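It is worth pausing here to work through a concrete case rather than discussing structure prediction in the abstract. The textbook approach is simple: state the sequence, then state the predicted structure, then interpret. We follow exactly that order.
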Amino acid sequence: MKEDESGISIKMTEILEQLIMKRGFELPFFAAVVGTNGSCMFFKYSRAQAGLKVKFITEHIEDQGIGLPINMMLVDAQGKALNFFIQKPPDKYEIPNCVGHA
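Step two, the predicted structure:
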């Protein structure tokens, strides 16, 4: 995994934890991630004994990895949905207000 991708994974985990604790989102989460270079991933987050586990459903990763910035759409078990943006450097992100029936 490239250094930027590692930072993105850490930030996504932080975002998911905040959604559970502060926004009442419920597992499982289904997510779609799209990078500016055409890389995309679709996956499912569910509860594990120690935190969250991720199951990749499908992906297409360009040779250079996922291109930043990325957009992520997340849908929880109740149908709450939101989109958020992770830019370079990966420590800059914000969680927007929920959309859908949140």
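Step three, interpretation. The beta strands are 29-35, 40-48, 51-60, 70-75, 81-87, 92-94. Residues 98-102 have pLDDT under 50 and may be disordered.
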